[in-house]
Design goal:
The structure is a homodimer. The first copy, chain A, contains 13 helices and 7 strands. Chain A has a 7-stranded mixed sheet with strand order 3-4-2-5-1-6-7, with helices on both faces. Chain A is α/β, with parallel strands linked by helices. In chain A, strand 3 and strand 4 form a beta hairpin. The complex binds adenosine-5'-triphosphate (2 copies) and magnesium ion (2 copies). One adenosine-5'-triphosphate sits at the interface of chains B and A.
Chain lengths: 256, 256
């Protein structure tokens, strides 16, 4: 059965999508069968793989709200072992619509039941909020990977996120655990970054990945070419950092 | 009557809060009476002014959902002419709760009616979504100021935001207009930034502010001291850029 990882943090712009796209691509490059599920109405993970999300007639909305299966909406990517359940513009109203539906919190988990055996890793990109789309992501996941920008505001939101993860664990998904915290856009010359890292490491201890993703312009250029960074500029520090993160993730799992 | 500006963009991490805090502070430093209204459950604008939002027993939630007035929840800041309607942790559930209430979209506008005459400028910091809190911000505003990071994903979401502003204008607030687009975290050495700027200027034409906010570490350090940047490091490029933005805003208004 494929392992399901939700990439979540309600703070905006911390690198959730960049992590979903590039961690997914790195695992697929390692010959693992990967599904990236985009439940963010912005559809950035979808366009990060070169798929024009505004023209799609079906996507994760149809699997969450209508009767479509995830297999019905999944499309190929440029990487042989990686598929995407894309977000289309219907998803914008989903959070409110879900609120009035049966099983509002676990519809994504039910949708994943049908495909989980077909993949080694399933990665869910969540929106910058703690709304029903993110709650669906957390209830469907085996673990949560939390990207944290080395900035003051990004640190502030962590205790609220930890509370929400606990709440989901108690009421919706008792096996949910924290896969790890990964520092993103890290610039070692920056004092504030070291303060934030010390504070977060003090709180999350050994749940913090050793791999830190450096600030690297190639990571932010790659989406404009519709490619994960390892297809855009494999030797770049950004692409290499995510390959390293994928490797660390697999090693930590084996020794867990 | 005070002019109400909503700072909105559903893309996360583009500088909405940094703009609300520092533009507000710059207007107040110019002896204008300013109210900053924080409708983001993260409460970053509240802590950006040094207020511990998790310990507050009342805030914008009480003015939106309960019977409190905005005047009841407003607190002072370190700046003589600037007050804040803070976000406390109750706001996390507000978007869903609003959905089942009367006048769900215009409760903030009704709340502002009582205080608008007391201020010259009212600035609303919105969350990274197009949910009911942001819709409340747009329906209450005279104009929308849109911070745009010079990045690919940030550009992608602009057409969706423009659609939403049009929708609010047609159904909820016919006098809503775009105050302007401001480029944030601008690094002139970065090619991608120039591509994004060209593209956005082509679309929004003269609605783009000439002032560009540079990437400046002092802007991201200031919130950890609970101060707007002009109180933390007045000569810094970041603080000066927001003072310049405030000046340009007032000049554009006079000539409109
Ligand atoms: N390590 C990095 N180096 C340079 N740029 C980066 C890096 N990681 C992400 N970015 C850029 O920073 C911006 C924010 O990242 P991203 O969109 O992945 O964050 P997010 O958390 O998914 O945002 P949202 O909250 O809107 O979903 C993007 O423009 C992205 O290209
Ligand atoms: N011009 C700048 N230079 C350097 N850092 C900046 C600048 N503007 C904002 N930042 C930092 O970038 C991060 C994102 O900015 P901010 O939190 O203001 O964005 P936001 O749009 O309000 O985010 P959210 O979508 O989560 O509400 C913050 O850590 C902030 O301190
Ligand atoms: Mg994202
Ligand atoms: Mg903000």
């Amino acid at each position: 059965m494929g392992r399901v990882i939700a990439i979540a943090n309600q703070k905006g712009g911390v690198g959730k999508t960049t992590t979903a796209v590039n961690l997914g691509a790195s695992l697929a490059a390692d010959n693992r069968r990967v599904l990236v599920v985009d439940v963010d109405p912005q559809g950035n993970a979808t366009s990060g793989f070169g798929i024009a999300h505004r023209q799609l007639d079906k996507g994760t909305y149809q699997a969450l709200i209508d009767q479509a299966t995830l297999a019905d909406v999944t499309v190929d990517s440029a990487l042989p072992h990686l598929k995407i359940a894309p977000a289309n513009s219907d998803l914008a109203g989903a959070s409110l619509e879900l609120a009035s539906m049966e099983n509002a919190h676990t519809r994504l988990r039910n949708a994943l039941d049908g495909v989980q055996a077909d993949y080694d890793d399933i990665i869910i990109d969540c929106p910058p909020s703690l709304d029903l789309l993110t709650i669906n992501g957390l209830s469907a996941a085996d673990s949560v990977l939390v990207p944290v920008q080395c900035e003051y505001y990004a640190m502030e939101g962590l205790s609220k996120l930890a509370e929400t993860i606990e709440m989901v664990k108690e009421s919706l998904n008792e096996s949910l655990r924290i896969e790890g915290i990964v520092f993103t856009m890290y610039d070692p010359r920056n004092n504030l970054a070291h303060q934030v890292i010390n504070e977060v490491q003090g709180f999350f201890q050994d749940q913090v990945f050793e791999t830190r993703i450096p600030r690297n312009i190639r990571l932010s250029e790659a989406p404009s070419h519709g490619k994960p960074c390892l297809l855009y500029d494999l030797p770049s520090r950004g692409a290499q950092a995510y390959i390293q993160l994928a490797r660390e993730l697999l090693v930590r799992r084996e020794s867990a």
